[in-house]
Amino acid sequence: MSQRDHDRSSEPRQARSNAALPSRGTSPVLALQRAIGNRGTIRVLARKGGSGPGTFENSVRIGKLGPIEITESNIADWIGKKADADDLIVTTVQDEHSHELQRMSDSKARIDSIEVQSITSQNSWVIVTFKNAVIRGYAQDQSGKTERWKANGFDAVNIKRTSIGTPRP
For the domain 54-163, what is the CATH superfamily, name and number? Predict the structure, then answer.
């Protein structure tokens, strides 16, 4: 028995059905997840090392600087939307970026964007973006391994949460 195509548009049937469906290969992260699973994908996304700048569990990008590893911060207050969070306070690992960060603090110039990324659970992360912020209070610790600074005076804060599948603890 034959089937009839009741849609009488001028396009061939095959072209119409493919155009309506989104491509499964549009996201490289989803392709990776299908290939190696949720846990494997998180390990790859959070992996340190390699030839370029690493990806850290908690990191910050300051304009074009970064990613910079965060050792301590109050980003949980921002993610939890606590009312008393006025400034972003961060302790980062000292590295090649430190002189530029100190220069930014001394100049008190506005930074277009400061992005803090934090892995919040096994397959979820959050990116908090501070727009038009000013870096202040840069200070190196006595050991020379970390530096502490804060960002304030920003115009807007954007919180973007991402999960691969259902969020897990």
Answer: Hcp1-like (2.30.110.20)
